[in-house]
User: What shape does this take?
Amino acid sequence: MRRYAYAIPYWLWIGLFVIAPIILIVYYSFFDIEGHFSLVNYETFFTPVYLRMTFNSFWYAFLITAISLLIAYPTAYLLTKTKHKQLWLLLIILPTWVNLLLKAYAFLGLFGTYGAVNALFEALGIGTKQLLFTDFSFVFVSVYIFIPFMILPIFNALEKLNPSLIDAARDLGANEWTTFRRVIFPLTLDGVKAGCQAVFIPSLSLFMLTRLIAGNRVITLGTAVEQHFLVTQNWGMGATIAVFLMIAMASIMALTGNKKWGVRQ
Amino acid sequence: MDDRVIIRFDHVTKQYDDDLPVLDDVSFEIERGKFYTLLGPSGCGKTTILRLVAGFIEPTKGDIYFHGKRINNVPANKRQVNTVFQDYALFPHLNVFENVAFGLRIKKMPKADIERKVKEALRFVNLEGYEQRAIHEMSGGQRQRVAIARAIVNEPDVLLLDEPLSALDLKLRTEMQYELRELQRRLGITFIFVTHDQEEALAMSDEIFVLNKGKIQQRGTPKDIYDEPVNRFVADFIGESNIITGTMIDDFVVEFANQQFTCVDHGFAKNEQVDIVIRPEDLELTTVERGKLRVRVDSVLFRGVHYELCCYDTHGNEWLVHSTKKADIGEEIGLHFEPEAIHVMKQSGGE
Ligand SMILES: Nc1ncnc2c1ncn2[C@@H]1O[C@H](COP(=O)(O)OP(=O)(O)OP(=O)(O)O)[C@@H](O)[C@H]1O
Ligand SMILES: [Mg+2]
Assistant: This one.
């Protein structure tokens, strides 16, 4: 029995902070705005308004993940080749220590009508542009915020890759691109998956940025949850959306689940 | 230029950062269709030579020629050379079949041909029926054989093998030595084989390069290297030897252990200090009276085919003797040897 005693704090933690909140959310999702038990929230979720929101959430999360991946992979690859890897890595991790809200405000300053970027545009003769409150700025800032979480797992996967595998591919006649496609990428796929999870899942439920940077032009499920809990006080509907978000996240985790193989022999 | 020469190293030096050079001004030629062995202790630069030939690294100084063309800057994928890597470097995400087929697929060979060639290569390394196995399901020795199959299936001009047999048990190892040699003869391609096992080198090679500290100490046929080592290092590395210092009194007369002996070597300066090698199997047990050297037996080991006797002469020199006759510990015996058994080497000599 003593063996199980060590697990008690762990189970307490899981129960208190993981299982209980999930049960609560599911429980709330079955109450309408007046506090009566009903399935109306689930009906509402399948109306065009919310379906459109769901689609938006997925679309933006996809964009953010895809763009992060496109930038992060080459970056991580170059990082493994540099001399002072640890320093560069630190520089990439550093921004993640800064509060999200602060970073958002920093961009408000940078992208604002009288911000630094527009000042530069003026100087170059391009003229002031509307940067804030656009899809572009939303995706840009989100990518900026999430990209370290994409770079890190890919960097780790590349570091673990046995360099003689690359030699072997070249030896067997593969050019650089083929080596990447047939050896490097497949063997770092686990890192890519981990990075995509780490970016896609939080992107799906982004809310603050949508208001601050996108000026509510981008309404995602995350925004909706926030609005229902804080503004309309329709906790039931907010909980229902949260349930769908959790289902979505769980399925993504399941889909990108890792198949294991030894990278090094 | 001799058109049998397929690879030529011309004063090649390889240096990492500011360390001592890993290869130090090495020049040699490799001829078509022969079996070469690079032999030397760990860290002497064997793998480095293979990597230069394969094109994974470039020389710091000097030039490498392939079929007479300078290839210093030709990338690995453009060289008609394949490698069996020291750590196998099999692709863990591909099964055995796909590993072996990798090079053929890149050449865009028709499917049916790939199928046939891969099967044939796997049959050669005794791995029929393992096509669908994942690499992590194979033992160390099996992986090594997959690596060999993956390289030979491409039928390169030159095959580089970096200690390909080191993970095999004695029986399989001997068998593979035999079969690799056979394969080399059949395909007629050039093999450059790396090992630090001198017996393997002697058994398999047309020509051996003995390396130490980034320099070629001696190159020659196995018999040359065994019978006429040029210096103490080579003599010591190739098989067990008795190496002692001596003086060349005159042509055909050498002095060691305070005695003069006739030998077959000449061309040294008078009274030049030299190293003397006598192989343990060239020493013959006899009575004290008939022996040229008088020694006391210190220890006796039974080695299967022969006894290994460790003896000391009156001057404290150690003599290792391989003999089918047994002697008792502490017994005084005589050692007889022919003049041809004495190999005289210049001290600190190169070729
Ligand atoms: N990338 C590198 N950077 C610095 N030094 C290196 C590098 N690669 C090899 N060396 C050094 O070069 C020397 C020769 O290495 P090499 O791999 O050729 O040895 P080897 O003869 O194959 O030894 P072994 O029998 O142990 O495989 C070693 O001292 C090694 O430390
Ligand atoms: Mg080596």
The interface with chain B takes residues 162, 164-165, 167-175, 178, 182-183, 186-187, 261-263, 265 of chain A (CB under 8 Å).
